[in-house]
Amino acid sequence: MFSKYKNIFVIILLVFAIWMVFFDSNSLMIHNELNRDIEALENEKEYYRKEIKKDNKTINELKKEEGLEKFAREEYYMKRENEDIYIIEYQDSLKVDDDE
């Protein structure tokens, strides 16, 4: 009598396990996908934290007179009166068309 019900319980348990793994709204597949999303977002958060630190360092440098002058000279090629600027470009820094 007990062996007759034992097979039914095993089948029900197997169907329940398959349902929970694949078909349920809280299935293991969805959990794995959400865990990958969380990991990607954590990596992105860490990247942006590093960028914020780098930008804060740059802002602090630009608040100083020497840092602001250095930035203006390097990025906008500004100069003082009676001063000449020579821009040296290396071959690997030049933009070339691939059509040539």
TrEMBL record:
Keywords: Coiled coil. It comes from the Bacteria. It holds the Pfam family DivIC. InterPro entries: FtsL/DivIC (IPR007060). Residues 31-65 form a coiled coil. This is Septum formation initiator family protein. It comes from Lacinutrix neustonica. The lineage of its organism: Bacteria, Pseudomonadati, Bacteroidota, Flavobacteriia, Flavobacteriales.
